[in-house]
Design brief:
Strand content: 5-15%
Structural class: mainly alpha
CATH superfamily of the largest domain: HUPs
Strand order of the largest sheet: 1-2-3
Number of helices: 18
CATH architecture of the largest domain: 3-Layer(aba) Sandwich
Helix content: 55-70%
Largest sheet: 3 strands, parallel
Bound molecules: tryptophan, iron/sulfur cluster
Number of domains: 3
Length: 410
């Protein structure tokens, strides 16, 4: 295998629920960015099929098929199995093991206050989402992420809260299990020499820092140590290490890598979504691209060809923002506000641009589908590679959580 990810590159991890065929909203909102990251990062991308079950547990028949369709579209869009680790969540059971273990330390209130929890229950009234699995959605997502110990999680704004709770869970985990035991004992012994009040104040400051990132508390604690006695270099290192939690980051906190939100709207002016039926799929045949864009909603003020309009109130403009250069955008603005161009004229270059963008992807899809078993093989290889990374994390996790080992080394 030629494309073994380089250890020197920062790791990114992201996932999508298996929604089946990808559309332009997915491409410009996420996939294009995933593809670009391949040249700079060690990329892990996966199908979150268990997450699909949290809300669609009553209709699982579509998940496997949607998984293969989605991954085919990922590959067609430019994900490269030689450079990225592409896999399926349910095939790497370490995600489940870490979910169970992190569940032990995750306060219920943290899950209940994740904004998507109440929102989705409201939005999907027709489904019964008062389940344990649905409440645990962000916890499972945290495990998905932490089991690979990535530096970054590339996601859109809508997922930022999930990355935030992931960071909190990692912090809490490291707080409990990343202790260096003798550091703890030696540091507290040292501070006790400075007096019980200093030790108590330092402990409180340390907790404020570790749990809430309270820098001022730490600064005040340093000060109170300093005025009591000037520490030697070794002592200072010890006290500082303990105070700031220089513990082992067994599960390092990942950062969100916010994907620039693409404003590309659907045919009816709402967010592009399969469920609204307003999407242009990556597999859309050219005639259908033409038909759909010609029929796309425009600024309602342009009821007649001679009525001027405003691109800012027109969903077609959001396509120009993606596909047109400065000059063409100026042409649209000028022509639209003066009624010098008609809407069909305005749409024509977009029809060409979308067709040109999709043609090579559709050729790739035909190639992939002509090779039976190809996607399955890509996923099998990706799952094996992902599992190696996940197992490595789980060994450390089991170890620090005190679980027994039955192999020869124990
Ligand atoms: N919740 C994500 C979404 O709906 C999918 C997801 C599951 C995910 N696990 C993840 C994304 C881990 C990033 C990292 O899009
Ligand atoms: Fe929209 Fe273009 Fe028509 Fe203006 S001319 S309303 S931007 S389609």
């Amino acid at each position: 295998m030629t494309g073994t990810p380089s250890a020197a590159k920062a790791r990114v991890l992201s996932g999508m629920r298996p929604t089946g065929l990808m559309h332009l909203g997915h491409y410009h909102g996420a996939l294009k960015n995933w593809v670009a990251l391949q040249s700079t990062h060690d990329c892990f991308y996966f199908v979150a099929d268990w997450h699909a079950l949290t809300s669609h547990y009553d209709d699982p028949s579509v998940i496997a098929r949607a998984t293969f369709e989605m991954v085919t579209d990922w590959l067609a869009a430019g994900l490269d199995p030689e450079r990225s680790t592409i896999f399926v969540q349910s095939q790497v059971p370490e995600h489940a093991e870490l979910t169970v273990l992190l569940g032990m330390i995750t306060p219920l209130s943290w899950l209940e206050r994740v904004p998507t929890y109440k929102e989705q229950q409201e939005n999907l009234k027709e489904r019964d989402l008062a389940t344990y699995g649905f409440l645990g959605y962000p916890l499972m997502q945290s495990a998905d992420i932490l089991v690979y110990r990535p530096e970054y999680v590339p996601v859109g704004e809508d997922q930022a809260a999930h990355v935030e709770i992931t960071r909190e869970i990692a912090r809490r985990f490291n707080h409990f299990y990343g202790k260096q035991t003798d550091l703890e004992a030696r540091a507290t012994a040292l501070l006790r020499q400075l007096g019980e009040p200093v030790l108590r104040a330092a402990s409180a400051a340390r907790t404020a820092w570790l749990e809430r990132g309270d820098r001022e508390a730490i600064a005040a604690a340093r000060q109170s140590i300093h005025v009591t006695r000037v520490l030697s270099d070794d002592e200072r290192e010890l006290a500082e290490g303990w105070l700031t939690g220089a513990r082992r980051a067994i599960l390092p906190e990942p950062s969100v890598l916010l994907t620039p939100t693409s404003k590309l709207l659907g045919l009816d002016g709402r967010k592009m979504s399969k469920s609204y039926g307003n999407a242009i799929d990556l597999r859309e045949p050219p005639e259908s691209v033409e038909k759909k864009i010609r029929g796309m909603k425009t600024d309602p003020r342009r009821a007649r060809r001679t009525d001027p309009g405003n691109p800012d109130d027109c969903p077609v403009w959001t396509l120009h923002e993606v596909y047109s250069d400065e000059a063409r955008r100026a042409w649209v603005r000028q022509g639209c506000t003066s009624a010098e161009i008609g809407c069909l004229e305005c749409k024509q270059p977009l029809i060409e641009a979308v067709k040109a963008e999709l043609a090579p992807m559709q050729a790739r899809i035909r190639e992939i589908e002509a090779k039976p078993g190809y996607v399955r093989d890509v996923l099998a290889q990706g799952c094996a590679r992902a599992q190696r990374a996940a197992r490595d994390t789980m060994e450390r996790v089991r170890d620090v959580m005190g679980l027994a080992r039955l192999d020869a080394s124990s």
